[in-house]
Amino acid sequence: MIAHIVLHHQIDKKKESRIKMKTIKNNYMSNYHYTKAVHLPAIVNEGKIRTTNITGEKKERSAVWLTTSEEWEICCSIAKFEQDGNTTPVGLEEMKQIMGVCRIKISDKLQTTTYAKFKHVGKVSEFCIDYFTDYFTKAGCKTNLWNCYFNSISKEYFESIEMMVGNEWVTWDGSISIEEFVD
Asked: Can you give the pLDDT at residue 23?
């Protein structure tokens, strides 16, 4: 997303109505944290999204994983074993039936790190990150939309908490318990 920001009004004596603008890249976009319905009550009741590791390497920096995509992120699905011994994530429809799919919209005030930058600062081997990226890209993930945050994300950054019902995202309004909401 590109934002045009007026830094200051410089009046050009020849063209007084001209305002000089500088274009800057704005990294503040809404992110979503996708999760299974079974995990949502713990997140809400604890008031934070905890960090996790994605590769299992000992030196990897733990992070909360986010995406700017408004669509369910397939990498959040459970995996099933194929006859050849490989695993593949289950699709959205199957995931909705088995586990339920939820998301938390995160405030754009939280400054995140892109996945491209994580490759360099996440302390993961190049081989491992390439394998991970290839696996999820083939599964349909849009890793170019991924972001991370290297600490837990507290509820003050939660803008909405939603669960997919049918084909629509339904927002939890707090009028019932989170446990009832995901049931």
From this structure: 31
Beta bridge partners of 146: 67
CB 49 within 8 A of CB 104: yes
pLDDT given for residue 85 in this prediction: 81
DSSP three-state, residue 39: coil
CB-hemisphere CA count at 13 Å for 57? Answer: 14
pLDDT average, residue stretch 33-43: 96
Strands 146-149 vs 158-165: parallel, antiparallel or unpaired: unpaired
Closest CA to 130 of 55, 24, 75, 50: 55
Q: What is the 3-state secondary structure (H, E, C) of 140-168?
A: CCCHHHEEEECCCEEHHHEEEEEEEECCE
pLDDT tier, 40 (very low <50, low <70, confident <90, very high otherwise)? very high
Cβ neighbours of residue 90 under 8 Å, at least 6 residues apart?
A: 77, 78, 79, 80, 98
Between CA 140 and CA 167 the distance in angstroms is 19
Exposed (0-12), middle (13-18) or buried (19+): which is 159, by Cβ within 10 Å? middle
Structure tokens at 34: 């996708």
Nearest to 104 by CA among 28, 151, 37, 26: 37
